[in-house]
Request: fold
Amino acid sequence: MGVALVMMGGGLLAGAFGSLLGLGGGVLIVPLLTLGLGLPLREAVGVSLVCVIMTSSAAASVYLERNVANLRLGMTLELFTASGALIGGMVAFVLDQHVVAGLFAALLIYTSVSMLRRGRAAPADAADVGDPADPGFTALLAGPGYGVHHLRLASGLSVFAGIISALLGVGGGIVKVPVMHLVMGVPLRAATATSNMMIGVTAAAGAIVYLFRGGIDPFVAGPTAVGVFVGATVGSRVAHRVDVHVLRWLFVLVLLYTAVQMARQALGLA
Amino acid sequence: MTFEARIGRLLTIGTYAGAAALAVGVVAMLAAGISPLEATFPTFDLLGLPAQLLALEPRGFLWLGLVVIVATPVMRVVASLVGYIGRRERAMAVVGTGVLAVIGVGVGIGAFLGIVRG
Reply:
C-alpha cells in the first residue's frame, strides 16, 4: 500500500504543479517513476502519457467553455502532432534507454530555460502576411482579435512536438506554445489554452501504441493518474491565490536537479 | 450553450468517468493486496475486458479507466467532426477526418505490433 500512496502523492504534486504552471506534468512523473521508484524508462513514459491526457482533458474543458482555446487551429495542428506521436511511439520501442534518458535530460534543461524566459519574448511580427499557400484556410483558423501565420512552418514543428511527446511521455506543450505564440502570432493565453487542448490527442495517439504493445502498467498508472487528477483539480482551483513567481523558481530548481540525475542515468553513472 | 462549450462538457464527463473507474480499480487493487511494483503486469486485452469487469477484477476497472481517459480526446475529435459536418464546414470536416485517420492508423499499428509481440 505504501508504494501506491507514494505514486498517488507524486501524481498529486505533478498534477498540482502542472496545472499551476501550465504544464502536463510529464516532466515530473517520468523522473518520479524512474529515479524515485526504479521503473524502466519506457514503462514510466507509458504511464506518464495517460496522466498527461488526464490533465489536458480537465484543463481543456474549462478553456473551451470559456472560449479561450482555438478549436479549429488546435484540430488542424493535431493532424501533425498526432502523426509525430505515432512516429515517436514506434521509435520509443527500438531506441536505447540511455539515449532516451539523455534526451529527457536535454528536455528538462530546455524546459527550465524556457520557464525562466517566459513572458520576456514577444511574438514575431508577421505583419498580417497570412499563409501564402492557402490564405482562405488560414483565415478560417483566426481567433477573436488575432489571425494566424506561417501555417506550413508551424505544421512541420508540430510533427516534432508529437515525436517528443510520445518518445518522452510529455505533453509537448513546451514546443507547441512557442510555435503558436512566436511563429504563428497567436496571443500567449490562447496559445497556452489551445496547446492544453491539443495535448490530449497528441498523447492519445502515442498512448494507443503503448497500450496495445503492453507498455502501460495498470497497477502503476491507476494510483499515479488518480493522484494527478486530484492534484490538477485542486491546483486549478487555488491557482489565483498562489504566487507563481516563487513556484516557478522552485520548479526550475527541481527540473535542473532532475536533469542532472537523468544525465547520470544516460551516462550509466546512476 | 456554444459548440465549444458542449465539446468542453464532453471532456469533463470523460475525465470524471475515467477517474472514477480508476479510483474503484485502485481501491480494489489495494484491497486485494496487489503491489504496484509487481515484476510482471497484465497486458491490455480489449476482448477480455468485459469478463474482467463482470468478475470485479481490479485490473478490469483500471483498464476501463485508462481506456476512457485515452478515448476522451478522441471522442472530442469525433464530436467536433459531427458538429462541423452539421454546420457544413467542409474544410474543418476534412481536418477532423484526417485526425481520426491518423489515430486509426495508430490503433492499427499498435494492434498489429501487439499481435506480433504475442
Summary: Chain A touches chain B through 62 residues (CB under 8 Å).
